[in-house]
């Protein structure tokens, strides 16, 4: 614990013995003396810092210790605010960056910028529904669809360099878009001649495409320096888009027709081969249809079996009333042997009971081969009929336009200019110039405070 000086303890004891008013007056005087000493030290430090040129007055005030304030002590008077060089610099930068920029932009927009007219067109891709006719023909030849929506294809096509080159060759875009003198309006006009890439970049500024994927509608907005030029460009874009859709349809129909034609040719060759095999079979075996021969052969076997049965019955009857030496018995036995031999031969022709293979190409095998050839021919005929239907449908579809471009808004002819939108442009210039100036000022003050 710190020791108390004897003099301080004695002064404290004497102060306690004084009246209350006297003690209060002494405390006020001590505080005023302390405040005076602090003010003197502050003035000394400020003078030293100002002499060295290291800190300004405000920073010196910030670094000095705060003076305790009491209700009974009156603070020293504050110096009046003065305009300093940094304030003048900020005001000058505001005049140059904000007011000057807006004045220059307004002068350019109202004095130099050329008026631009707009032509608007709206269209969509429509397709004919031919499913009913195809279903009536068996549904064998549906045309292949597009891999992506036609609206997306048109959207990319209108912004492509290929279309820009086509329109430039037909209408001379460089001449149309340089009607506003580039020396007078260098911002909004085209600077001829330029490369195709420069023309494409300017095309994206002057031609706007809006695609609504939910409805399939496409809206086109074309700008030019005369109303007729804008309408001509919009109409040419619509015509080229229609031709592009027709080319896509032609390619799809050509693919469908080509595939149908190839299938038909394959079916024709298969049918020719099946019929040729049938003809060779008939010439080789000298039969028109083995079924008729089989029917005759079956009838012959049935007749021989009946005769054999009758002979056996007669032989049994003769055996009961005569002796074995009876000529009638011998004749019946001989007849029985002849009929059995004939049955054996006829059955061998059918492939029945011929295990030694003594008969070549039995009738049963011929019937089986003939039925196989008949199945091949029937399948070839059905394939040919289906391929012929598919080819007829593909040819029918190729003779009409399955997809086409339908315009719900024809290219318009403007009467007044819409661009440049001077009020909106000057408002945007004012907003962005003010934001940029404010950001620069805040960055400058933040760097100043970090020193």
TrEMBL record:
Molecular functions (GO terms): protein tyrosine kinase activity
Name of the featured protein: Capsular polysaccharide transport system permease protein
Chain segments annotated as transmembrane: 89-110, 423-447
Signal peptide as annotated in the record: none
Species this protein is from: Sulfitobacter marinus
Gene Ontology cellular component terms for the protein in this record: plasma membrane
Sorted UniProt keywords: Membrane, Transmembrane, Transmembrane helix
Domain of life: Bacteria
